[in-house]
Amino acid sequence: MKPLFFALALVGAPVFADPLPSWNDTDAKSRIISFVETVTNPESADYVTPAARVATFDNDGTLWAEQPVYFQLIYAVDQVAKMGAADPSILISDALKAAAAKDYKALLETGEAGLIEVLRASHADMSLDQFQAEVAAWLDDARHPTTGMRYDDMIYQPMLELLRYLRDEGFATYIVSGGGIDFIRVFAEEAYGIPPEQVIGSSIVSSYEVVDGVPQIIKGADLFFVDDKAGKPVGIMHHIGRRPILAGGNSDGDFEMLEFTTAGEGARLGLLVHHTDAEREFAYDREGHIGVLNRGQDEGPERGWIIVDMAQDWRTVFASNAR
Length: 323
What we know:
single chain; 323 residues; alpha/beta; Rossmann fold; 2 domains; eight-stranded mixed sheet; two-stranded antiparallel sheet; 13 helices; 10 strands; 36% helix
C-alpha cells in the first residue's frame, strides 16, 4: 500500500485514500481510523506528540498465522529432525524422538519441559549468525503443512496495512512477542517493515566470544527472559521506556500488554484479532493449545478494546492473496 495521499474527487474537493483497503467498512475499521485521526490532530484535546506515538503488536496469530502450532516450533522440530537424521545418538529423550519423527501430538504430551528441550537443541550452542542464517534458509524452503504456502506468505494483509498506516501517521511500530527475539528479527524488517531494534521477544542467555579470531555472539541454553503475558509490559518498558498508546494481540497471552497500554492517560486503543474464519484461515478461540482467547473476549469490550472479527472485518486475509 502506498503512503496516504490526496486525490481529487469529481466535485473538486480533496479526499483521503482509504488507508485500510483490505478492511471492510465495519465498526472496527472506523474506530481505528477515528483513533488515529484523533491522536494525530494538533487541534484535538487527545493529541499525542509523534515521540509518544508508540504501537506494539504481538506476532503469532496477530501479524501472521499460528496454526497448527507456532511456526517457530515447526522450525525447531524440522531442525531436530535434520540433526537426528545426521546423528541418531542425539535423540536421547521422548521429546527429541517425537520431534525427529515430527510427531507433534507426542511432543506436546511431553509438556513444557519437552518443548524447551527441543527449542534448546535447535537454538542453542551456536553463533547468532549461524542461527539466523539457518532460520533464513528454512523460511526459503519450508512450507506450511496444510496451506502449502511459505510461512512468511501467511502474513495478514489487513495488519500490514495497519502497520503502514500508523507509520505514515508518525507512529513507531514494535513487535512484542512470546516468540524468540532472534528468530523474529530474521524476517521482521522485510515482512513488516519493522527493523530488528523494534522487535521485543523471548530470549536465552548469550555470551560474547572470539572464535578463530572473529568476535561473535554465542547463543546459550538457559532462558533469559520470557516475553509473554505479564512479561510483555516488562519487556516494553525495558526496551522502549514508554507506555504504548495502541496495542494489538490475539490471545490471553496479550492481555497484560493491552491492559497496560489502555490504563495510561489520554486516548488509548486495544485491539484483539479474533480468529473466526475457518474458510480463509482458521477458527479458534476459547479452547486448545494455541491462541486461547477467553479473558480478552469476556473483558475486552467492557474495557473499550476492539475485537476484530476476521470473517466480518477483513476483505482478505493473507498478504500473498492481495498481490
